[in-house]
Design goal:
Length: 454
């Protein structure tokens, strides 16, 4: 890892900067060689990314080289994560191509690969299909090395998925969400233990993610509108029982992670999930954007109608009051003079060109276009993904929404329907647990099962 600067003063600035950020891994700084002694981040690969980022900000990139070195073990650990990430994200790759991709020597890569094979994380899967001399052996992630559990703690229904390290499902199960918060941990434990886990997996269960329909920050639930988990130590209690890392994350954030990992590998994504409420998962420059305290993406509570319909959040005219499935079906029932109507009935009547059903679709298109226009102007995403029964059942609606986005300011690539649909939260949760176990930042899984054919 090389950085450059011709200004020795930068070192004290650099040292101060990094110390202030509580990263006490500098033991000495001498002759432009920085020795890393101790670090307190989750994994070395992450540390490397943070370090690169910080150094870039502090130093001017001109002049002499600064070499950042560490103990042999640390460098080896960083390289191991890089090799593992490269193998996973290429699906299959040879040792030589991995070395070329990372700028490491073949000997280094071969030694690391052997270690990963011994640790049962990587497997050899035959030869590359070239006719140029000796065929290299291809490497791939040993997806059966361990498994993860992902839970979608929905408002009415709780779903659980057990998947391998490539996000491929072993088992899925649903229960009604416990209404009594005190029972949640025991019911989740019963649910997970009632599911068939893979036998003979070398690492067994390696991580667990719970998708929360509410605001989460630092693995804690900050606010949940439909069930009360605030201040409830869900992650710790599950961790005590299963003895593996437990990740709590907002459902819209998990959805966008799932879509990015399995289908839409873009660096800037806005993923809108329309269910009982409306969630927005945002990825900016390949990183999840959560805001100052996890509340970014409360898209349903952006105001689209001044002095409009009252919303439980305290404002008037929130988007959620016009385009959530709950609101649309409520409006449809009112037009039909009925107490309640379900989506299937709506779907049938829309297909029969019922004038009230068409009116409701026009409402969806109109307000969704306003909302998307606001997202495009606020975040400039490359693509917008919509996860809603209305767009999944009637994909032509997306074209109508695009026709409403007339602003000359807009420069997105496309608006697309969700690829993972109602499994996006579960699969996003699986990705979070898999990344945590493997210690990698960027995960790409080319699981064709989830790829839609657009
Ligand atoms: Zn609101």
């Amino acid at each position: 890892m090389f950085m450059s600067s011709n200004n020795p003063c930068s070192f004290s600035a650099l040292y101060t900067h990094i110390s202030q950020n509580n990263l006490k891994y500098f033991s000495k700084i001498k002759n432009y060689v920085i020795i890393i002694k101790e670090f307190r981040l989750r994994n070395p690969f992450h540390m490397q990314a943070v370090l690169m980022n910080r150094l870039d900000k502090v130093l001017n990139t001109k002049g002499d080289f600064i070499m950042v070195t560490g103990s042999k073990e640390l460098i080896r650990d960083i390289n191991t994560h890089l090799v593992l990430e490269t193998i996973i994200n290429h699906a299959t790759i040879s040792r030589a191509s991995t070395a070329k991709h990372l700028g490491l020597t073949k000997a280094t890569v071969s030694a690391i690969v052997q270690d990963l094979i011994n640790r049962k994380l990587v497997v050899e899967i035959g030869s590359d299909d070239t006719n140029l001399g000796r065929k290299p052996i291809l490497l791939s992630l040993n997806k059966k090395a361990g498994y993860v559990v992902s839970i979608d703690l929905g408002v009415d229904t709780t779903s659980a998925l057990i998947s391998d390290l490539a996000g491929e499902s072993y088992c899925m199960k649903q229960i009604r969400t416990p209404k009594n918060t005190n029972n949640i941990v025991s019911e989740l434990i019963n649910l997970i233990e009632s599911m068939k886990a893979p036998a003979n997996s070398p690492y067994g269960l390696v991580g667990l993610t719970v998708g929360i329909h509410g605001v989460t920050i630092h693995n804690q639930v900050l606010f949940t509108p439909y069930y009360n988990l605030t201040g409830f130590n869900l992650a710790d209690q599950l961790n005590q029982h299963f003895g593996v890392p437990v990740y709590l994350e907002n459902e819209a954030n998990l959805s966008v992670i799932g879509e990015k990992t399995f289908q839409y590998d873009y660096s800037n994504i806005a993923n809108i999930s329309v269910h009982s409420g409306i969630g927005l998962g945002i990825i900016i420059n390949d990183q999840l954007f959560t805001g100052y305290n996890g509340r970014a993406g409360e898209f349903g509570h952006t105001i689209v109608e001044i002095d409009g319909r009252p919303c439980p959040c305290g404002n008037l005219g929130c988007l959620e009051q016009y385009v959530s499935e709950r609101s649309l079906l409520r409006d449809f029932s009112a037009l039909k003079g009925k107490e309640e109507m379900d989506f299937e009935t709506y779907q049938r009547m829309y297909e029969e060109n019922d004038s009230d059903a068409l009116k409701i679709m026009d409402q969806f298109i109109k307000y969704m276009s306003v909302g998307i226009n606001n997202i495009l102007n606020a975040y400039n995403p490359e693509i917008v993904i919509i996860n809603s029964s209305f767009t999944i059942q009637f994909p032509h609606v997306l074209e109508k929404i695009e026709q409403c986005l007339k602003s000359k300011m807009n420069s997105y690539i496309k608006i697309v329907p969700s690829a993972l649909r109602d499994t996006s939260i579960l699969l996003g949760g699986a990705c979070v647990a898999i990344k945590g176990f493997l210690g990698i930042n960027n995960l790409k899984l080319n699981n064709t099962k989830y790829q839609s054919h657009q």
